[in-house]
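Customer escalation, tier 2.

The customer says the design service returned an amino acid string that "doesn't look like it belongs to this structure." They asked us to rerun it and document both sides in this ticket. The original structure tokens are below, unchanged.
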């Protein structure tokens, strides 16, 4: 059992470091390819669905419905992976959208800055906290999941109490970020 815990711990650390690095590196890659669909509303919807399913999973475990909780959590992890793939696909094939670029010329000039006012600071706060917490969330979700499959439910519950609100914040702010930037696509 101790060997399994150590083995999983090493993999959780590796994955938790590799994913953000790969995403950051892929942001420097641009592939000339027009995706057949516009992904931001799709992956934003995935965030919204994940938030709803997280709440349902929480209610399921509160009502001692372990099977439903387990299934919903696996779906949430799967949706998060789908989100990540779509997010990367969009960003390596598209130019980044600039918040407040009203005329969509790729520059937020002084007139546009004046027009959006303090909304930029709110957007930046939400986006930065969303990104930082999504990075921190990776080892939390993986650790919680591993503890559950190892049937170590006390430690699973302990980390789950921290992971759930952060995961909810990340999924909900993902939707908010999309709503805030969508006028500038």
């Amino acid at each position: 059992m101790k060997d399994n815990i150590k083995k999983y711990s090493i993999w959780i650390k590796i994955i938790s470091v590799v994913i953000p690095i790969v995403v950051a590196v892929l942001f420097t890659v641009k592939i000339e390819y027009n995706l057949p669909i516009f992904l931001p509303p799709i992956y934003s919807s995935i965030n919204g669905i994940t938030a709803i399913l997280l709440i349902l999973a929480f209610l399921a475990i509160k009502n001692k419905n372990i099977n439903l909780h387990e299934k919903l959590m696996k779906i949430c992890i799967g949706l998060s992976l789908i989100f990540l793939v779509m997010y990367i696909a969009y960003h390596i094939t598209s130019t980044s959208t600039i918040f407040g670029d009203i005329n969509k010329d790729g520059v937020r000039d002084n007139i546009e800055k004046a027009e959006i006012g303090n909304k930029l600071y709110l957007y930046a706060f939400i986006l930065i906290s969303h990104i930082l917490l999504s990075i921190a969330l990776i080892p939390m979700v993986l650790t919680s999941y591993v503890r559950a499959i190892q049937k170590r439910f006390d430690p699973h519950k302990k980390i789950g109490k921290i992971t759930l609100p952060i995961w909810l914040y990340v999924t909900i702010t993902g939707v908010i970020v999309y709503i805030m930037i969508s006028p500038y696509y």
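Tier 2 assessment: The sequence is consistent with the input. Helices lie at 2-26, 40-62, 66-93, 110-116, 119-149, 153-181. The two ends are 51 Å apart (CA to CA). Sent an explanation to the customer and offered a walkthrough call.
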